[in-house]
């Protein structure tokens, strides 16, 4: 585990290797699938559905985000969200400013998190099916906002 006051490693590959050790310590799969918030939905049953973009596309976006985080200098959070039997589904969170970094206790460093219990996830490979699920989730969110006045 890196020193919380030390700067993040200079590459995502180095950070991911340390993150994999952290995942193993917390009984998560050590193979990581990087996603963005737009690629995940949580169903009514609590399970996650993940839009399965190509591994190359996911890795390229993760590298871009990580490098942006290094450039911003506010720290980087590697966050496990859920897992399949073989992969941990994770995202890279970059604080928007110093106040956001302080709020999330990142302090210009590399931080890891994962839920205490693994929430199951499955992949959605079909783009049409993904759009249908996303539309349903958006409709539910709109109905909730309308019902509660926000």
Task: Explain how this protein is built.
It is a single chain. With 150 residues, the chain is an alpha/beta fold. It contains four helices and seven strands. The strands form two sheets. The chain has a four-stranded mixed β-sheet with strand order 1-5-4-6. Strands 2-3-7 form a three-stranded mixed β-sheet. The model has no long low-confidence stretch (mean pLDDT 91).
Low-confidence stretches are: none
Helix count from the secondary structure assignment:
4
What percentage of amino acids are in beta strands? 15-25%
The strand count comes to 7
Order of helices and strands: HEEEHEEHEEH
Strand order of the largest sheet: 1-5-4-6
* Derived structural class: alpha/beta
The helicity comes to 40-55%
- Mean pLDDT across residues: 91
Shape: globular
Q: How large is the radius of gyration? A: 16 Å
* Main β-sheet description: 4 strands, mixed
Distance separating the two termini: 41 Å
- Number of domains as seen in the coordinates: 1
